[in-house]
């Protein structure tokens, strides 16, 4: 058995900036100097920096040019790491601004009502706004160049920030359950119910806006930490909204409804905490969705020159998906032909796989095995 000839699809030295890769389709010129041609016209379209979804939120977000919704076309392709990093940073600044505005409005309502319960919720929202800072720092850190110690770059800083967010969600669950148990043992009517209800609506709107924004952009750029932070904002919004039936129950002489709703919300947050822990565990353990692995394998196998894909590994580095593996070609072509086939494979992957990062493929032929 002969050793297969190995040709790697490499782009530069072993140590290189994580965000330095450049996909063949980034500039939409598609003039590949690989010694091959495509028989089909490149009439595919890329997902530009806007969303055409229907609904009030999409209309407002597009009008405000929120990240992921603004109608801009003068940018690299979505899978470019520089673009996704910048989009993540803009999203986090918006989230920080929205939560800060929510907190300020609640402070004014507190000054008018002097409700201790409202003060607690206001301080909690302030803490949530500060939660965006570790993730924001992680995105900035992810821009740093790879070096001899951090050979994959600093993209994993997002996942480290995600651990802080998971801890924050767990703390929220514990805090709400503790307060609910205390009020269950000694139920008290809610003071200044009208003001508290107003603050609850403000808290829900602010947190839900942040949740929609972060979850949408997080899924788009592949940032599990941002998705987790968005889910945390949604939890806090629902927690604020749950105050409304508690206020109504207190006004009707049933203050026991307040701790009961608190227990239900606290238990729900425990399940969300479990899901967040599992999601971050997958990231830290280099786990990927099996369906995504199948998509990459099917894309490689669909190439007319590929006979088999004997090895394939995927990993997330921050919000970029890195692919490495081996393909076996049907014919023993020249080095130039093999390089052209490998480049074509990467080009196909760039259209089939969202948030594609580095691609390293080793190639051999059936006649050499």
Task: Tell me about this structure.
There is one protein chain. This protein is an alpha+beta fold. It contains 10 helices and 4 strands; from the N terminus they run βαααααααααββαβ. The protein has helices at residues 56-63, 81-113, 116-141, 157-185, 193-221, 224-241, 243-251, 257-284, 290-301, 335-352; strands spanning 7-8, 306-317, 320-329, 356-365. Strand 2 and strand 3 form a beta hairpin. The longest helix is centred in the N-terminal third of the chain and has 33 residues, at 81-113. The protein is elongated.
Tell me the span between the first and last alpha carbons: 6 Å
Outline type? elongated
Count the beta strands.
Answer: 4
Question: How large, in whole angstroms, is the Cα Rg?
Answer: 25 Å
| Tally of separate helices | 10
Poorly predicted runs are: 1-54, 71-79
Q: How much helix, percentage-wise, in residues?
A: 55-70%
Largest sheet: 4 strands, mixed
Structural class: alpha+beta
Q: Mean pLDDT across all residues, rounded?
A: 77
Q: Please report which band the strand proportion falls in: under 5%, 5-15%, 15-25%, 25-35%, 35-45% or over 45%.
A: 5-15%
Which sequence of strands runs across the widest sheet? 1-4-3-2
Strand and helix order: EHHHHHHHHHEEHE
């Amino acid at each position: 058995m002969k050793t297969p000839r190995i040709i790697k699809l490499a782009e530069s030295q072993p140590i290189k900036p994580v965000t330095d890769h450049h996909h063949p389709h980034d500039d939409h010129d598609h003039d590949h100097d690989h010694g091959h041609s495509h028989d089909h016209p490149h009439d595919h379209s890329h997902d530009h920096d806007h969303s055409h979804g229907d609904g009030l939120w999409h209309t407002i977000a597009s009008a405000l040019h929120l990240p992921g919704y603004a109608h801009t076309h003068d940018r690299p392709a979505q899978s470019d790491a520089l673009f996704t990093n910048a989009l993540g940073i803009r999203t986090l600044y918006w989230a920080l601004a929205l939560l800060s505005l929510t907190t300020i409005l609640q402070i004014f309502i507190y000054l008018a009502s002097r409700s201790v319960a409202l003060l607690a919720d206001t301080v909690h929202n302030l803490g949530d706004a500060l939660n965006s800072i570790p993730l924001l720092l992680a995105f900035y850190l992810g821009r740093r160049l790879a070096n001899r110690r951090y050979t994959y770059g600093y993209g994993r800083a997002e996942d480290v920030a995600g651990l802080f967010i998971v801890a924050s969600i767990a703390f929220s669950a514990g805090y709400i359950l503790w307060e609910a148990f205390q009020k269950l043992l000694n139920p008290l009517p809610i003071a200044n119910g009208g003001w508290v209800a107003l603050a609850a609506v403000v808290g829900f709107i602010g947190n839900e806006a942040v949740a929609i924004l972060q979850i949408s952009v997080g899924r788009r750029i592949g940032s599990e930490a941002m998705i987790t932070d968005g889910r945390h904002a949604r939890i806090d919004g629902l927690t604020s909204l749950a105050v409304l039936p508690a206020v109504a129950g207190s006004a009707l002489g049933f203050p026991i409804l307040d701790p009961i709703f608190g227990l239900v919300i606290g238990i729900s947050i425990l399940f969300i905490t479990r899901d967040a822990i599992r999601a971050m565990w997958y990231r830290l353990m280099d786990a990927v969705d099996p369906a995504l692995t199948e998509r990459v394998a099917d894309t490689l196998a669909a190439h007319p020159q590929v006979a088999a894909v004997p090895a394939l590994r995927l990993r997330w580095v921050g919000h970029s998906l890195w692919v490495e593996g081996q393909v076996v070609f049907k014919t023993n072509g020249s080095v130039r032909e093999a390089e052209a086939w490998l480049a074509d494979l990467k080009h196909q992957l760039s259209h089939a796989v969202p948030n594609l990062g580095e691609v390293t493929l080793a190639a051999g032929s059936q006649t050499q095995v």
